[in-house]
Each structure stands twice: as C-alpha cells, then as structure tokens.
Amino acid sequence: MTASREVHLAARPVGEPKRSDFELVEVELPDPGPGELLVRNAWMSVDPYMRGRMNDVKSYVPPFQIGSPLEGGAVGEVLASPDDRVPVGQQVMHMLGWREYALVPAEGARPIDTALAPAAAYLGVLGVTGFTAYVGLFEIAKLREGDVVFVSAAAGAVGSIAGQLAKIKGCRVIGSAGSAEKVDYLINVLGFDAAFNYRDGPVRDSLRRAAPDGIDVYFDNVGGEHLEAALECLRDFGRVAMCGAISLYNATELPPGPRNIPEVVRKRLMLRGFIITDHMQLMGDFVRDVGGWLQAGKIDYRETVVEGIERAPEALIGLFRGQNLGKMLVHIGDG
Ligand code: NDP
User: What CATH number matches the domain at 128-277, 3.20.20.390, 3.90.800.10, 3.40.50.300, 3.40.50.720?
Assistant: First the structure.
C-alpha cells in the first residue's frame, strides 16, 4: 500500500471553476496489479481543455466524474514495474496526473529522455503543447515561408511555440496577449514582429494596426472577439488553424458569432479545427524538428510553476486569468 494524495472533482463548476469544485483526498493505493507501474509523479500539467471535462457533456474526451480524481499529463519516476520493459527508476510521461502516486498501465506510460531535456519539458515544449503548435501550423494551416501569421494567447504554452516556429520558417509574426509584460516578452525575447495587449482596445483595431496589409494565417487559441477580428484581417485564401477557444470555456451561455462569418465565403478562407490525437503520425517529425531547434537554442520556452498538489486547482484557475507565462505546471514532488 502507498499513501497518496489526489485531487478529486467535488462539484461541476458554473462559470470559472472555484476552489470548492475540487477536493484534496488522502488515499491508500493498492500494490500494482499485473501490467501496472507504480509511478511517483514529480510534475503535472494543467490545460485549458480540463475545464471542458469538468462539465457533464460528451466531447472528444469523456467528462471527469464527481468523487473521482481528475486526469491529465504528468511525469514521474517508476517505483515498481511488472517487468523490465519499463525499468524501475525510469522517468515516464503518462496521463494520470492530479495525484502524488499513480498506478499506470504499462502501455499508457511513455519513457522520456531526461538527458535531452528536463522532465517537465515533456509536458510542454516537447510534449502536448509543443506538438499542438507544430500540428496546427504545419499540418492544418499549411504554413508557407513569408506568410503573415497572427497567434492569440501568444505568450502561453501553445502560442509561444507556434509564434517561434513561424519565425523560424521566415514568417512575419504578430501576437496578442493579456498584459504589457507578456507583450514585452513576445517582442523583445521571442522576436515577434509585432504584438499587442488585447485588453487595451478592440482586437480588430490593434490587429489592423499591427498588420495593415492583412494576415495569411490565424492560429486561434482564443475564439470570440479574436476570431472575428482575424476574419476581418485575413487576406483572400487565408487559413485558420482552429486550436481552441479559451475565451468561451467558462461561458454559461455561448454568444452568437463571429458576426462576420460571410467573410469566409467572400475571401475563400479555410477554417479547420483539429485535435492533436488525430495527427500522432507527425510525432516523429515533431521530435526531430522541435527537439533539434531546441538543442540549437532557436526556441525559448518558459514555465510557470505552482508548488504542491494542494495548489493544483489554483493553477488551473490561473490559466483563465492569464497567470502563466509559457506552460503552467504543478510541481508535485521530486522523483
Ligand atoms: P496557455 O498556456 O495559452 O494558457 C491559457 C492562456 O489563455 C492564458 O495564459 C491567458 O493569457 C489566455 N486567456 C485566458 N482567458 C482568455 C480570454 N478570455 N481571452 C483571451 N485570452 C485568454 O494554454 P495552452 O497553451 O495549454 O492552450 C492554448 C489553447 O490551445 C487553448 O485554447 C487550448 O484549449 C488549446 N489546445 C488545443 C489542443 C488541440 O489538440 N486542439 C491541444 C492543446 C491545447 P493572457 O494573459 O494572454 O490572457
């Protein structure tokens, strides 16, 4: 038996999640059964999509259940293993975060190489969020050299990598973010060509100023007003990678819109939604390309670390308040 603490869903949130929607529970984990690994989690990821799983609605992933632990990406060390395919001491990435210790089916654990990058990077730049940026830009938006690219939530985990990949490919890149500090980071550290704080005025006006001749690609992390502004600024045959719509995730009623959807026909635009799990065949290319650019010092990545599993709910809520620069992580313990 292993004593562990885990975060359970206590109530389904209405609007922005509250601390009382989560409960920290002490449990005794049984010894691993056949085919199971015992993993001590060191880091866990919090991601905007988790908000959707807190609702009782069918989506591309099943909802979390009240009274059960939440789930999500985590990395940690294998403490017990049924066989030597995944040896004791190996660091693995898996999907049973939100708990200190996890019993992980061996086939659900991916060994990670901590000589190449620190374990936490496999939850961000070398993990889901980096891969999302890669798939969205190259596979969905079919990025071309010289494109003018607009990225929203550009100082976040996906957006910061998307913008840098577009810069590496010789594009002009514009980003939006929610604070002056983030705008400064986009321009002075990441080398974006332009950036603006979307809280300073209508997104449409700021985007027009940053891209007076229009944009070719919009990498949409935000939806809502940002998407409407992008449709207005896209040039003929522009492409939109519809990655997420965080501005709507806490909405109790979805607003109508974008109001200017006829632009899609008039300009012959392509809008395409995507979920990375449909594109796993690109993982090898991603590791080669982004791993290589990372090692060559061409990619900057940031992490915002919240200490302690008891503060994991705070970290998730923080995503909706823009409290992260780069990838939001919870440090659960060493291992
Ligand atoms: P981020 O690291 O970008 O964190 C979320 C950021 O969103 C915050 O830092 C905040 O930054 C911004 N934000 C929050 N609320 C609003 C709002 N109302 N309007 C504008 N910006 C807001 O998260 P991720 O990088 O993990 O995710 C980015 C997007 O990618 C999300 O939409 C997510 O759902 C999506 N995603 C999609 C995947 C797929 O397969 N399609 C896979 C993974 C992620 P700021 O200070 O700038 O407001």
Answer: 3.40.50.720
Q: Is the peptide bond before 258 cis (omega within 30 degrees of 0)?
A: yes
For residue 248, give the ligand 1 atom closest to its CA: 18
User: How far apart (Å, rounded) are the C-alpha atoms in residues 315 and 226?
Assistant: 24
Rounded distance from Cα 104 to ligand 1 centre (Å): 28
User: How many A from CA of 246 to the centre of ligand 1?
Assistant: 5
Question: Does the beta carbon of 274 sit less than 6 angstroms from any atom of ligand 1?
Answer: yes
246 close to ligand 1 (CB < 6 Angstrom): yes
Task: Give the pairing of strands 91-94 and 74-80.
Answer: antiparallel
What's the pLDDT at 334?
79
CA-closest candidate to residue 99, choices 122, 71, 64: 71
User: pLDDT per residue over 277-323, tens digit each?
Assistant: 999 999 999 999 999 999 999 999 999 999 999 999 999 999 999 99
Rounded distance from Cα 107 to ligand 1 centre (Å): 29
54 touches 45 (CB < 8 A): no
CB of 48 shorter than 6 A to ligand 1: yes
What is the pTM for the complete model shown? 0.97
Q: Is 244 in the pocket of ligand 1 (CB under 6 A)?
A: yes
d(CA 218, CA 1): 50
What would the pLDDT profile of 175-190 be if each residue is shown by its tens digit? 999 999 999 999 999 9
Domain extents in the chain: 2-123+301-331, 128-277
Of 1.10.600.10, 3.90.25.10, 3.40.50.2300, 3.90.180.10, which CATH number belongs to 2-123+301-331?
Answer: 3.90.180.10
Ligand 1 centroid to Cα of residue 321, in Å, is 10
